[in-house]
Amino acid sequence: MVARWVLIVCLCAIVATALRAQSSAVGETVPVELSTVGLDGRTGTPIVVLREPVSGGVLPIWVGVMEAQAIALALHGVVPPRPMTHDLMASLITELRADVDEVVVTDLRNNTYFGLVRLKVAGDKKIRDVDSRPSDALALALRTGAPIRVARKILAIVPDFEFIAPDGPNQVVQAMGMTVVLATPSLRKQFTLGDRAGIVVTSAYGAARDKGMRRGDLITSVNGKPVEEPAEFFEAVRATKPRAPVRITYWRDGESKTIELPADVPPANPGKRGRVTA
Predict the structure, then answer these.
(1) Are residues 185 and 124 in the same domain?
(2) Is residue 86 included in any domain, yes or no?
């Protein structure tokens, strides 16, 4: 019995030491937005694209099919009738009186990404770092509103990839505090958008909301170029020089309006996502 307890204590010490070492080895991190989900055209593997607002750079994260679906559902704001794995994880964390402080993509080794979920437990000043696959950490971040960060060293070694956006209504993009989707007939009816070309804003927070953007707005052009698909919106934002303004024209209640947002606007905390009815 004594030997068993000694073994357990030793194992716990080894795990704790490994987590501390991983956390200390992360180095400087930068905030990013989880911008979109699609496929790598070269391999056909699902891919999540993170955007670093200040430099305008992007980071591809290769994920499994189920993880890609979980992330896409959260971006779309779809709440399943029964909790799926990442919904359960978020609920368990809440019931245990903890919060996801942030999630971090910490390293890239041998073509494998590593990540952490950083938990803040009620009554405990210490942040608890939990080893995680980045795909699970990202899906959890979207469900809890936790910020996403990436080790700066990773941004310097971004591997080559070819992004292919999903077809039709499966497209969803998040950038500069806005989530945009295809203007489907049901969304046009819900928000009384008529047949005007554009993409629909399903959520707006941070600087975008402060500038007046709202759920149900129809973005018609970015930097003077018409947009009809979320992927076009993403490419227009990416093409804007860092620290330069992005000019967004949108339509609401029969009136066209234009705002400007800096391309390097830092990601805001969107909070937990609500249900999209369309």
Answers:
(1) no
(2) yes
Work out the angle at residue 27's Cα, subtended by the Cα atoms of residues 21 and 33, and round it to the nearest 5 degrees. Answer: 115
From CA 137, how far away is CA 227, in angstroms rounded?
31
Residues 6+ apart with CB under 8 A from 148: 31, 32, 33, 34, 50, 102, 103, 104, 105, 138, 141, 267
pTM: 0.82
- Is 150 in the same domain as 195? no
pLDDT (0 to 100) of residue 161? 87
The CA distance from 244 to 260, in Å, is: 10
Establish if 183 belongs to a structural domain: yes
Q: What is the pLDDT of residues 66-76, one digit of tens each?
A: 999 999 999 99
Residue range 198-214, pLDDT digits in tens: 999 999 988 899 999 99
Same domain, yes or no, for 96 and 200? no
Q: What is the pLDDT of residue 268?
A: 65
Higher pLDDT, 273 or 55: 55
Instruction: Report yes or no on 79 lying in a domain.
Output: yes
Hey, how many other C-beta atoms are within 10 angstroms of the C-beta on 264?
A: 18
Give the count of domains, the chain. Answer: 2
How many other C-beta atoms can be found within 10 angstroms of the C-beta atom of residue 160?
7
Residue 87 CA to residue 73 CA, distance in Å, equals: 11
